[in-house]
Amino acid sequence: MDLLFLAHRAPTAPDRGDRIRSYHVLRHLAARARVHVVAFDEGAAPRPTLDLASWTVIPRTRTRARATAGALATGRPVSLTAFADPAMTTALATLPPVDATYIFSGQMAQHVPVGPTTIMDFVDMDSAKFGQQADSARGPLRWLLAREARLLARWERDVAARAGTTLFISEAEASLFRATGGQGDIRAIGNGIDARHFDRTGVVPAPTQRPLIVFTGQMDYQPNVEAVMWFADHVLPRLAADFAIVGRAPTAAVRALGRRENVVVTGEVPDTRPWLAAASVCVAPLRLARGVQNKVLEAMAMACPVVATPQAAEGIDHGGTIRVAEPRDFAAACAAMIAAPGSFGGQARARVLSHYDWAARLAPLDDLLGTGQSLAA
Questions:
Q1: From edge to edge, which strands make up the β-sheet containing 2-7?
Q2: Cross-sheet strand order for the sheet of 281-284
Q3: Is 341 exposed, middle or buried (0-12, 13-18, 19+ CB in 10 A)?
Q4: pTM of the full structure
Q5: Residue 254 pLDDT greater than 70, yes or no
Q6: Is 103 helix (H, G, I), strand (E, B) or coil?
Q7: Which residues are registered as beta bridge partners of 37?
């Protein structure tokens, strides 16, 4: 079987949220079909060490301003004009015929015919995310975000109606899509976790003198930025602990937090596990979140106690092995975890081992594609 895997960001090393899912899906598919990968990327995107039929990466150079101008001129969502590129059309035209297509992220559906042999993996319902952002925005930005939410929702529904199967990362996202007019074969396939990698056994913890609270994530992603700013301003002052913000590309506002006596901003690190192993608590204080937060699964796998907002915990079958706290209760929940070291962590890892194995999570793809358990002829 020949399969096209089309992605908005190259599925190389699983080192950020979207790449974690796309890489593991690609690895699963590459063991069962001849996969041709075509993707955009902002920088260097080395070919992963997988058995792939072909690997094509198109540099993505269109700026947000240019994409916005194009969207306003054409009546399209910015999310689509940001990924409209004739180089992608040319690259796809050179491929041999394929039996099926796996589209990762809705922006990419504009580049290929969507039909019965298409699996459309939206991951999250992006239109809902823009709607949430619009609710808290002001002025022209509010109008632009509301426009994006409206137009993108229309696009998502149109693509799903044509696709053979539409996937979301959680049943909560799939249910929301159905409730807002989504039609077709709509399913949820959740993320897994590489529990052999995220295992504190043999990991040397990062040095710390006091209880350490850790947040991990891409630090130029606005929901992450807002989460750590809120935590540092409103929760940390109530705790006798240090706060480590671990993740690449911190914004100027995040870097400024590092000037506080009890805050460390690491920037990009080669491995987040030493920080998770050192943590008394791993926090996910996100107020805007969609789908499944990989940062929470990774902390759970590392047997690290987790305190998360309801938004960050949504979609995770944690079975009560993490603390879910509203903002007003967040400091008290963190203090309770610090006061009772060892609580929850072991239970959280056990939950990951029993519920979040990647092979089990992705097994439904075999039935959807008819690929079975080995490379198709």
A1: 54-59, 34-41, 2-7, 100-104, 118-123, 165-168, 186-188
A2: 263-267, 242-246, 212-216, 281-284, 306-308, 323-324
A3: exposed
A4: 0.79
A5: yes
A6: strand
A7: 5, 55
